[in-house]
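Exercise 7. Given the encoded structure of a 279-residue chain, write a plausible sequence.
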């Protein structure tokens, strides 16, 4: 029996409640994906009946979500910094916590025509968010994964942000003789034994984008160490990290002779981003 939009959301939310902490929102997003309509449509036409084809599609998507598949992978897109980004299983799904890094970078007050580098760009989320806010910044976004480079390039082209270029590079490997006013990164920082790797959406994301050795610090340490050869004088490095890594990141910044070191909390009041300046 075909449901109304209101009934479909209620039924979907009830089904997904056992596997999702945002069951109603998940049901709404999946239904809107089937309908190809904006969110307001659900409230304007709650009594409208789904067609048989729409009902089948919605039920199929809910079953995928019930199995744990991320909503972003099901719909193929995710909102980040008011930008709609294509996403897939080749890289991380952009998360709201990462907007903390974007806000911090925009708040530094650096030059209007700054050169910026985004390491491990994935979908391109950070670079594209910065590029949308600072049209005169010259932004380079790199990733070592070929499929991620292709994904970020598609996002860049669809958004029409000509001040962002995407290229393949394993951290700094393809950036000889380039210097930047600002380097930003959301590197792998989860310890391989972390129990959260077997929970939620991360089960469907590549471990190479999540896990780092040395208690999650190996990539962070490599980036801090190598960035000294690519930062201009007084340039900044901003790193997203785990909620319990703020102290360790600050201490390593000190060891590498950075100054003006500061950790910023995310919306959940957890340590999330540490920034420092190269003297």
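Solution.
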């Amino acid at each position: 029996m075909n449901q109304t939009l209101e009934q479909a959301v209620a039924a979907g939310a009830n089904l997904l409640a056992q596997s999702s902490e945002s069951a109603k929102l998940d049901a709404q997003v999946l239904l809107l994906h089937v309908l190809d309509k904006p969110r307001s449509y659900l409230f304007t036409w709650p009594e409208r009946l789904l067609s048989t084809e729409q009902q089948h599609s919605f039920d199929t998507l809910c079953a995928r979500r019930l199995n744990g598949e991320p909503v972003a992978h099901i719909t193929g897109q995710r909102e980040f910094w008011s930008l709609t980004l294509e996403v897939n299983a080749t890289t991380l799904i952009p998360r709201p916590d990462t907007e903390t890094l974007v806000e911090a970078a925009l708040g530094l007050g650096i030059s209007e025509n700054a050169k910026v580098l985004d390491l491990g760009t994935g979908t391109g989320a950070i670079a594209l968010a910065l590029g949308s806010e600072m049209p005169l910044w010259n932004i380079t976004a790199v990733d070592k994964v070929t499929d991620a480079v292709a994904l970020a390039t598609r996002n860049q082209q669809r958004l029409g942000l000509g001040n962002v270029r995407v290229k393949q590079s394993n951290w700094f490997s393809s950036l000889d003789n380039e210097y930047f006013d600002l380097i930003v990164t959301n590197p792998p920082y989860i310890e391989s034994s972390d129990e959260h790797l077997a929970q939620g959406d991360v089960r469907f994301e590549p471990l190479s984008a999540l896990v780092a050795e040395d208690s999650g610090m190996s990539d962070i340490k490599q980036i801090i160490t190598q960035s000294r050869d690519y930062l201009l004088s007084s340039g900044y490095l901003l790193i997203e990290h785990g909620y319990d890594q703020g102290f360790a990141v600050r201490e390593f910044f000190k060891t590498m002779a950075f100054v003006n070191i500061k950790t910023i909390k995310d919306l959940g009041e957890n340590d999330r981003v540490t920034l420092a300046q190269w003297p």
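Remark. The longest strand covers residues 231-240. Students should compare their own answers with the one above.
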